[in-house]
Specification:
The complex is a heterodimer of chains A (about 130) and B (about 525). Helix content of chain A is about 45%, strand content about 20%. Chain A is α/β, with parallel strands linked by helices. Chain A has one domain: Rossmann fold, CATH 3.40.50. Chain A has a 5-stranded parallel sheet, with helices on both faces. Chain A is globular. Chain B folds into 2 domains: about 425 residues, Methylmalonyl-CoA mutase (TIM Barrel, Alpha-Beta Barrel), CATH 3.20.20.240; about 60 residues, no CATH class. In chain B, about 50% of the residues lie in helices and about 5% in strands. In chain B, the strands form 2 sheets. Chain B has a 5-stranded parallel sheet with strand order 1-9-8-7-6. Chain B has a 4-stranded parallel sheet with strand order 2-3-4-5. In chain B, α2 packs parallel to α4 and α5 crosses α20. Classes of the chains: A alpha/beta (about 130), B alpha/beta (about 525). Chains A and B meet through α1 of A and α3 and α17 of B.
Chain lengths: ~130, ~525
């Protein structure tokens, strides 16, 4: 499995993204992390170029619905909607459902135990 | 007997006594409050003379909405403001910029032009209220707007007290609101310090933050070490630019967090004050005692708040307030219990303010200066923290100094490594979090859907964009273009950029235009992306 961890939008909080990237790498998963302030278009292009299986979006500013929608649309636009999208960050409970409806496979709100996130990538629930 | 360690890694003895103070010279190292090296605090009587300033971090939506929240908290006894700006403002993007979509007015208030700043501070007398501006890469233009509003209000320059954060180095390490490359970013920091020291003598033109670096994952000792290294870099830069250290060092301030182990936090600040005083006096040759003082906002620590059983965060906040008071804070701010979910509600903001007020007025912690001074435990770990902080500073020196370490990404990688270690300690239970990894029964509680959520309102962004269009239509566009040209020309040289920035601000140039005028010369920062060493 290959995963792109990405920070879309303007939010500069990258602690969670880097911790998850490190944990996945330690669990034997190939990880690409592209740094702060990527646009949804850039993320989609990077995911396609890197031929990843999953994109992990980390968003703490509250703009997760818009940004996740843009990434999912971009993937569909490129015929790359086999790439799964998961989201982590400050996600209010009601928005977990909204994100799932949009097509996000899993949501990991603030304070999700790291082992739970790693397990989700290993046990096939993300697909 | 179970093991116990400070977050900085120092083992804790089960009991402390006089033997642990070997090597501590009470007069030299501990001294008295208000006296060099200020281990016990920077004022003789501390809170008996003056309580800490209460300064909650606020800002959302339009300037008008933020103005209303300011007034609400001031009516409940908050005596100073701490302004949050939205991400487009922090990054120099106008509200109608495509990259700002979805972010206008979300995590702070949107500022596009001087007209917004006028509205944000309408009815708030800037010669009486002190205002912190949480702004970094855009500190020069936003502070210029603030100075322009103060001038419009007729406030005397020597009465204007503002603290733009203006600490760009920590933005490269954590928080991420950088725009320009490291060197021109540092020049802007210096320009604002120099201009403010000359024209606004009571402004605090830089607030050096260990806070965000700790929030990004570093240890307590690293928080202080990196903060001191960053402060030293700015002081060095200003001296190199030709200023006398005593002309600006008295207005250098700090912003640090203090969640976690109470006594470790107290020791961190006691060690930090001692180290800073000695550094500014001995290394930089400052003669004015005010230059030696580590004045700090202490508080925050939102990363320690969790969504599980969110009311427990109120209890965590009370301990943060206690730790901050025992640490000798000049200013305090607390995270709100709903912070792991949402932009704070008015209710949550009021509880945070009341927490600080209860600590101040009911707990007795303010009755005497440095009540923990002389504790075997606290004095012993103060010495230990000092030793570890110095080791961490030496480590930064081995990376080539803080500026070089920021450019290569070495320090960012170390902070990420520590964040990962912390997460592993949470997973193993070495670090306990009640209701999250401890006392949880089968599993932790789910996030609480009953917490009042901040509803982002697109009409707020639309109103902001409409207002911006109106300002663009009504201003003298020739004057704006001329001012922006002068700014770009000045950016090519070495003169202080505050005068041309002020000129552009007063012509109602937008923040995005001003940012771009400098970007044309400076270019943009390229992040050294590293998450493993």
């Amino acid at each position: 499995m290959k995963v792109l961890i990405a920070k879309p939008g303007l939010d500069g909080h990258d602690r969670g993204a880097k911790v998850v990237a490190q944990a996945l790498r330690d669990a034997g998963i190939e990880v690409v992390y592209t740094g702060l302030k990527r646009t949804p278009e850039e993320i989609v292009n990077e995911a396609v170029q890197e031929d990843v299986d999953v994109i992990g979006l980390s968003i703490l500013s509250g703009a997760h619905l818009l940004l996740a929608r843009r990434v999912l649309e971009g993937l569909r636009g490129q015929g790359a909607d086999d790439i799964r999208v998961v989201v982590g960050g400050i996600i209010p409970p009601a928005d977990v459902e909204e994100l799932t409806k949009l097509g996000v496979r899993r949501v990991f709100p603030m304070a999700t135990p790291l082992q739970e996130i790693v397990a989700a990538f290993k046990d096939g629930t993300i697909g | 007997m179970r093991d116990a360690k400070l977050h900085a890694g120092i083992p804790i003895e089960p009991v402390y006594g006089p033997g642990h103070l070997a090597g501590v010279d009470i007069e030299r190292d501990i001294g008295r409050p208000g006296e060099y090296p200020y281990t016990r605090g920077i004022h003789k009587h501390m809170y008996r003379d003056r309580l800490w300033t209460m300064r909650q971090y606020i800002g959302f939506g339009t300037p008008a909405e933020t103005n209303a929240r300011f007034k609400y908290l001031m009516a409940h006894g908050q005596d100073a403001l701490n302004v949050a700006f939205d991400l487009p403002t922090q990054l120099g993007l106008d509200s109608d910029d495509r990259r700002a979509e979805g972010e206008v007015g979300r995590v702070g208030m949107a500022i596009d032009t001087l007209a917004d700043m006028e509205e944000a501070f309408g009815g708030i007398p800037l010669d009486r209220v002190s205002v912190s501006l949480t702004i970094n890469s855009m500190a020069a233009p936003i502070t210029a707007m603030y100075y322009a509003v103060a001038e419009q209000q007729g406030a005397a320059a020597e009465k204007v007290v503002t603290t733009p954060q203006n600490d760009i180095l920590k933005e490269f390490v954590a928080r991420g609101t950088w725009v320009y490359p490291v060197d021109p970013s540092l020049r802007l920091v210096g320009d604002l310090i120099e201009y403010s020291a000359k024209h606004y003598p009571r402004s605090n033109p830089v607030s050096v933050c260990g806070y965000h670096i700790r929030e990004a994952g570093c240890t307590t000792a690293q928080e202080m070490a990196y903060g001191l290294a960053i402060a030293a870099a700015y002081i060095d830069m200003m001296i190199t630019r030709g200023m006398d250290v005593d002309d600006f060092a008295p207005r250098v301030s700090f912003n640090f967090t203090c969640w976690g182990k109470i006594f470790e936090e107290v020791a961190k600040f006691r060690a930090g004050r001692r180290l800073y005083a000695r550094m500014v006096r001995e290394r930089f040759g400052a003669r004015n005692p005010r230059s030696w003082m580590f004045r700090s906002l202490i508080g925050g620590g939102g990363s320690s708040f969790v969504p599980q059983e969110p009311e427990n965060n109120i209890v965590r906040g009370a301990y943060i307030a206690l730790a901050a008071a025992l640490s000798g804070a000049q200013t305090m701010a607390l995270p709100t219990y709903d912070e792991a979910y949402t932009i704070p509600s008015a209710k949550a903001q009021l509880i945070a303010l009341r927490t600080m007020q209860i600590c101040a007025e009911e707990s007795g912690v303010t009755d005497t200066a440095d009540p923990l001074g002389g504790s075997y435990y606290v004095e012993a770990i103060t010495t230990e923290m000092e030793r570890v902080i110095l080791e961490e500073i030496a480590q930064v020196d081995r990376m080539g100094g803080i500026v070089e370490a920021v450019k290569t990404g070495a320090i960012q990688a170390e902070v990420a490594r520590q964040a990962y270690l912390f997460e592993q300690k949470l997973a193993s239970g070495e670090i306990k979090k009640v209701g999250v990894n401890w006392y949880v029964g089968d599993r932790p509680a789910a996030a609480d859907p009953a917490v009042e959520l901040y509803r982002f309102d697109q009409t707020v962004a639309d109103a902001q964009v409409a207002k911006l269009a109106k300002v663009r239509a009504q201003r003298d566009n020739g004057a704006v273009a001329a001012a922006l040209r002068r700014l770009t020309d000045a950016a090519r040289g070495t003169a202080n950029l505050m005068p041309p920035i002020l000129e552009a601000v007063k012509a109602y140039a937008t923040l995005g235009e001003i940012a771009q005028a400098m970007k044309d010369v400076f270019g943009e920062h390229k992040e050294p992306v590293k998450f493993v060493r």
